Amino acid sequence: MKRTLLSAGAAVIGLLFFIPLLWVLTGSLRPGSETFARLSPLSWDSFITVHPTLENYSKLFTGDIGRATANSLLVSVSTVLAGLAICSSAAFALSALRFRGQTAVFAIVVLSFLIPFDAIAIPLSDMFRDWNLTNTFTGLVLPGIGNGMAIFLLRQFFLAIPTELVEAGRLDGLGWFGVFIRIYLPLSRPALIGAGLTLFLFQWHSYVWPLLMGTDRGHILGPVALANLQGQNFVDYGVVFAGAVLLTLIPLAVILGFQRYFIQSVSSSGLK
Amino acid sequence: MDSTGEVSRVGNPMRTRQPRRLGKATKAGRATKADRAGQPGQGRVALLFLLPALISLALLRLIPAGVALVDSFFTESLLRGGRVFVGLGNYSDLLGNADFRKSVGVTLLFTVIVNPLQIAVAFLLAVLYTQRATGSKFWRSLVILPIAVPPAVSAVIWSVIYRPDGLGNSFLDLLKIPAQPFLTSTEQALPSIIVLLSWIGVGYWMLFLIAGINDIPDDIHEAASLDGVSPWRRLWSITLPLVRRPLAFVLVADTVSNLLVFAPVQILTKGGPNGTTNLMMYDVYNRAYAIGDLHTAQAEVILLVAVTLIIVALQFRLLRGDDR
């Protein structure tokens, strides 16, 4: 009896959280004129369509949202590549090497991720305007690459690599760069994937910065373009919903693909 | 997203304090040994590895914060030609500004409601979804799903739900409740935003609490139920105290992230109606770009960053106190 009640509660709450997304998914497979037509009264066919059409998606790919999603992908992938290179080498110095001022450098790293990025986006965008980085991909990517959280995650992992391996590598004539590339990086795949996910989601989910930095058609990012579309007077909600689905499916696929690492990085990052 | 059992592995800042401290101690020990052996320092190599990260952290995080701090003491004056030092003038302007004061009030009210609400719901859901019940893991993943949705996209989705002819009102209709204005009402706009933010956030915070609950050894619960302790008592006297560490962490991280809420306000209400959803982060943006008063906006940025740092510092004290 108790077990049944718990199962029912778990199911009802799960469904309640899912309903908005289900409605969006169904709406994206229907002509825009029908988005609100089947809502009153609420019935099964408000959430399920028997005649799905991909019309909205084809409009999407020829329109601005498709372009903006491609921009988002370019920015996020570049951020992951550049960010991993920068953050892992810093983490290497902070874990494998010994030098004076190490504690101070680590303190700077921690401080930099305690300062909330969105709050300093306005002064930073002012600086970027002076440097003519508005509406450039460089301007969009840069704030994502030096991620204190990613450095912190990677350092934690690197600290667990036995020093005997480093000593052996050094004796075999490896330079520090060799130790980093040949020993540390291959051993740290899970941590690199976790940090890569942190970097990817930081960019994919960002809104304040792309709103300030990328406003022209060639540089606008997905979420900003979708929000702009929604704010107009005559809106095709079928297309808006298709855009929402597309912008959600991409990070979802990435998260599900690397599920194990995602859970680890979420639980170890904490501060979003 | 089921493998929460793995959570404790890589090291949540709050859990790995102990090992980290040990790590530091051995590191220090090794360093002195190396010094005694007269090994050359690795400073130059380290600098090469660190340089790109240090430059980008300084340039993209610390310097803008510094610039905002300096700018907040200056103002632009046409009469005296360019930048003029005004000391705390921008701050006193802010404090005297009715819109700012109202924004602080709204932000406080919002903070006091949204955080306890989200944490209580996240905790109860974490308890529910760690019970052995059929399909529990599947339903749990539906609660976590909104994590994948970019916050701005969630805001767009909910703006359609809250339309007069949207999903929200047809749901109320099902429950025989008359249609509500949601975002256009001064009473309902802020609660509407709170509902949307909880839909986004609760699953995320639940993950940490599920990890905490899974870390509680099974025999504690078994012993208690053998002693005839009721499930409700067990929840209060065993589960809750034993997850206080992740709970404290979630409290602080959630508070900080809710302090910086921007996209839903900008997309759904633009701070209105009548300033009732004008949270501070939106007020900063509005002050800088719509009103064009960059220096006062910088002062507000500094206040926001300061409050965030205070909350985070409190967290470190809280968690440290917990160790003893």
From TrEMBL, chain A:
Superkingdom per UniProt: Bacteria
Topology in membrane: Multi-pass membrane protein
GO cellular component entries: plasma membrane
Keywords: Cell membrane, Membrane, Transmembrane, Transmembrane helix, Transport
Principal localisation: membrane
Segments traversing the membrane: 5-25, 73-97, 104-124, 136-154, 174-202, 237-258
Family the entry assigns: Belongs to the binding-protein-dependent transport system permease family.
Protein name: Putative chitobiose transport system permease protein
Automatic annotation (TrEMBL), chain B:
UniProt keyword annotation of Cell wall biogenesis/degradation present: no
Topology in the lipid bilayer: Multi-pass membrane protein
InterPro entries: ABC_transporter_permease, MetI-like, MetI-like_sf
Keywords: Cell membrane, Membrane, Sugar transport, Transmembrane, Transmembrane helix, Transport
Chain residue ranges for the region called Disordered: 1-38
Record GO cellular component, one term: plasma membrane
Pfam families attached to this UniProt entry: BPD_transp_1
Subcellular location: Cell membrane
Stated name of the protein: Multiple sugar transport system permease protein
